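Hi F.,

I've been meaning to write this up properly since the lab meeting, where we talked about keeping a consistent format for the predictions we share between groups. The idea is simple: the sequence comes first, exactly as it goes in, then the C-alpha cells exactly as they come out, then a line or two of notes. No screenshots and no reformatting. I'm using this chain as the first example so we have something concrete to point to.
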Amino acid sequence: MKAKDVAKQYGLNNDYFIAWLKSSDVPHKVGAMGGVDIPDDQDMGAIAKRFQDEMAVRQETAQQQAAEQQRIEQERLQALSNIIITSGFTFDGYTITKYSGYISGDHAIEIERGTQFWFGGATNVTGALMSSLVDLRRQALLELKETALALGCNAIIGVDFDYITLQPETTNSKGEIKHLPYVFGVTANGNAVVIEPNRRTGLSD
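Output, unedited:
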C-alpha cells in the first residue's frame, strides 16, 4: 500500500509520515520516483498509531525545550538588567570583592554619504547620526553588560564611551575611487567587578 494513501486514510501529514517511515524500522520500499510503499501484510492502523505517538513525544519534547530556552533567556535578561554601572569607581553601600579587568562593548552603523545631483539632495549625515546615537550607546552598553555577565560579574565601574568615524573607500578595476558609506562606531569601556552589599555594623539606626 502506498504511504501517501495510508497518510490520507488516517489523517496524517504525508511529508512527515514518509520522512518518518524512511528513518524507521517499519518494512517499506522506496520507489525510483521517491514514493514509499508499505507491504500489504503490515498493520497500517498500528503503523499510523506508532507514528502519531512518536510525533506526540517529539512535539512535547520540543515544547519542553522551547520553554527551557525561554526560561534561560528570561534569566539572562534579568541578570543583565541587574548589572549596575557607574562612571566612577565605587558604589555607595557596596564593597568590590573581585576585579575581572577591562572590558568593552562595540556597536557601529553605516550612513550613506549621498551625492548632490541636480535632481536630488544629499544625505543628511548629521541628522542621521544624531538620531542613531542613543541606539548606538544602548547597544554598546548591552554588549558591555553581556561581557561582564559572562565573566560572572554583577557591576561595571569606570564606564565611558569612545567614538570613531571612518570614511572607507575602494578602487575599481579602472582605478576610479568609490566612496563607501560613512561608518560611525561607539565603544563602551569599563572594568567588570563583583560587588556585595556592605554588612551592617551592628550600630542602632
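Notes:
The longest strand covers residues 94-111.
The chain has four helices and eight strands.

If this format works for you, I'll send the rest the same way.

G.
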